[in-house]
Amino acid sequence: MGVEHVTAFLSYLAVERGVSASTQNQAKAALLFLYKEVLQQNLPWLAEVVAARASRRLPVVLTQREVRDLLLQMNGTMWLVASLLYGTGMRLLECLRLRVKDIEFTRREIMVREGKGNKDRVTVLPENLLVPLQEQLQKARVLHHKDLGGGLGEVYLPDALAVKYPAAARAWGWQYVFPSPVLSDDPRTGKRRRHHIYEQSIQKAVAAAAKRAGIAKPCTPHVLRHSFATHMLQAGYDIRTVQELLGHSDVKTTMIYTHVLNKGGRGVLSPLDSL
């Protein structure tokens, strides 16, 4: 296929099929991979085909009352994870990948390791979650001792740490705060290990809780991160502080939450109310 065929195909996806910009760009990336890696053909013009630009969308944000109602419909580990997402602004996988050593109770902070962009950052540890988190760590410790007693107890270590520190994989500090209730085989090494709980479990729990709470808005774990940022700005915290807590590299990304604040009844006075 030549440049005109590829361009026509990508246009067909957008115009005839009505796919989103991300789907169109995924199709382009697939063609690039096909020619470069499979067909072993270098087609520089394919990389120059203009990528579709995603439309700007404002994030879904829950009110504080809706967050309260959502959390009241949850319990146990699912409640704790959802509370952490809202209380810290972490992404779902950042929360599930937390290690024991990354929680500092005395300074009330959480170290988020290898976040988006492979960056570390520090976020706040809500005071209301100090006791529930300590109880969760006790449960995780019991599970870890059980695994050690069965000749297991290893956890996945990032990069080459498993080679550099062979004993670290069984150390308590490296264990997941939210370990999976079942053991599984690591596809990278074939070793029997205990991974963290699956993100799908949290997603399903949040969706079910939102339904029970009667929340009509689309509700996912990431909505709790959006709500954290918006409510922090509403509380008067400066945008730079919120940017650091969220781990955004550019303040422009954080500024989208100011647009949420400036819309609707909180930001403007409707002319109807002046009649």
Mean pLDDT: 86
Rounded to the nearest angstrom, the distance between the terminal CA atoms is: 63 Å
Low-confidence stretches: none
The total number of structural domains is: 2
C-alpha-based Rg, rounded: 23 Å
Number of strands: 5
- Run of helices and strands: HHHHHHEEEHHEEHHHHH
Task: Provide a compact summary of the structure.
The protein has two domains: 3-47, no CATH class; 59-264, Orthogonal Bundle (hpI Integrase, Chain A). The protein is built from 13 helices and five strands.
Structural commentary:
The protein is mainly α and 275 residues long. It has two domains: 3-47, no CATH class; 59-264, Intergrase catalytic core (hpI Integrase, Chain A, Orthogonal Bundle). 48% of the residues lie in helices and 5% in strands. The strands form two sheets. A three-stranded antiparallel sheet has the order 1-2-3. A two-stranded antiparallel ribbon has the order 4-5. A hairpin with a 4-residue loop joins β1 (103-104) and β2 (109-112). α1 packs antiparallel against α2. It is globular and about 65 Å long. The relative contact order is 0.12. The model has no long low-confidence stretch (mean pLDDT 86). It comes from Lampropedia hyalina DSM 16112.
Question: What features would you highlight for this structure?
Answer:
globular; 275 residues; DNA integration; Integron integrase; 2 domains; Integrase_SAM-like_N; DNA binding; two-stranded antiparallel sheet; mainly alpha; hpI Integrase, Chain A; DNA-binding
